[in-house]
Design brief:
It contains twelve helices and twelve strands. With 325 residues, the chain is an alpha/beta fold. It has two domains: 238 residues, Rossmann fold; 74 residues, no CATH class. Helix 4 crosses helix 5 and helix 5 crosses helix 7. The two termini are 30 Å apart.
Length: 325
């Protein structure tokens, strides 16, 4: 338990487009240990999904990892061969993508798609894979799995399609599961069921989970720790209790205060002033500086001149902010 299962250090993933260089991930560092659930949270476009794709070695042109390290159980994945990546992806690192219907093959039955995952990660024959597919569907809470295994994605509800994606991800019994917005476009009841399922499976398997979401409520529901992203960087990392009770970064504070529950005593929701910077034209220094009221109140000029380093003002609590540096 002393060594992290995954250690990401100084990860930078840029996209080289005609208009310039998009710094989608710009110096991300974090760790996750076995059996831990870490919520990677932030607004759309902050770099959460690109971070996960970088970890799995799924970045395609015009994107490229330009710097940093991704060590999984002691193996360096940045710059690794396809043979090494294929030995890790699927069997040991599995992903659940945002849109289950778009990720499932529309002309292949559910059973065959689970079987494909089993074929690449186990030595099971065809009939054994079929039996295992039924077992996995039953495990993720799909009723009548013997019938569902013969059905096609268009015959499934959104919640069922997401459960099938989870079954495919679990086929290789991975050590790390990356769940990218697993409850997007699902109604509240189904969201709760999917989150409860992920928690149960994580507890039973002892796998680590990176939960990518923009929903603070989802993070509070099942995560142990949270890493808050803004403009390609992790600006704060802490336990869930600290996230809700004592956030340090002005952006995190703004997110927490803008929740409906936090604004219920006011006539209007609290909002963070300004807008997220364009990735092609990030400001010098701290990316949040143009929107940061505490910076203005404190008269800090360094924020617009130099990017802050990540510091640890409290044990296990890291923040990238000059107010705490």
């Amino acid at each position: 338990m002393n060594e992290p299962l995954l250690r990401v250090e100084g990860l930078r993933t840029h996209f080289f487009v005609d208009a310039g260089v998009v710094k989608a991930v710009d110096g991300v560092s974090f760790e996750i240990r076995r059996g831990e659930i870490v919520g990677l949270v932030g607004e759309s476009g902050c770099g959460k999904t690109v971070t996960s794709l970088s970890i799995a070695g799924l970045i395609e042109p015009p994107g490229r990892i330009v710097d940093g390290s991704v060590r999984f159980d002691g193996t360096e994945l940045v710059g690794a061969s396809e043979r090494v990546l294929n030995s890790v992806r699927g069997p040991r690192i599995a992903m659940i993508f945002q849109q289950p219907r778009a990720s499932l093959d529309p002309v292949m039955s559910v059973g065959r798609q689970i079987g494909q995952a089993l074929k690449s990660g186990t030595g099971l024959d065809r009939s054994a894979r079929r039996r295992r597919a039924v077992e996995l569907l039953d495990r993720v809470g799909i009723s009548d799995p013997h019938r569902r295994v013969r059905e096609y994605p268009h015959q499934l509800s959104g919640g069922m399609a997401q459960r099938v994606m989870i079954a495919i991800a679990l086929a290789g019994e991975p050590d790390l599961l990356i769940a990218d917005e697993p409850t997007t476009a699902l109604d509240v009841t189904v969201q709760a069921q999917i989150l409860e399922l992920l928690r149960e499976l994580q507890s039973a398997n002892g796998m680590a989970v990176i939960l990518i979401t923009h929903d603070l409520g989802v993070v509070a529901e099942i995560a142990d720790r949270a890493a808050v992203m803004y403009a390609g960087r992790i600006v704060e990392e802490c336990t869930i209790s600290e996230l809700y009770d004592a956030p340090l970064h002005p952006y995190t504070v703004g997110l927490m205060e803008s929740r409906p529950a936090a604004s219920q005593s006011k006539s209007r929701l609290t909002v963070i002033p300004g807008s997220v910077p364009v990735p092609l034209d990030l400001p010098v220094g701290c990316s949040f500086a143009p929107r940061c009221a505490p910076r203005v109140e404190g008269g800090l000029t360094v924020c617009t001149e130099q990017a802050p380093e990540s510091v640890s003002p409290r044990d296990g609590h890291r923040v990238r902010c000059w107010l705490h540096g």
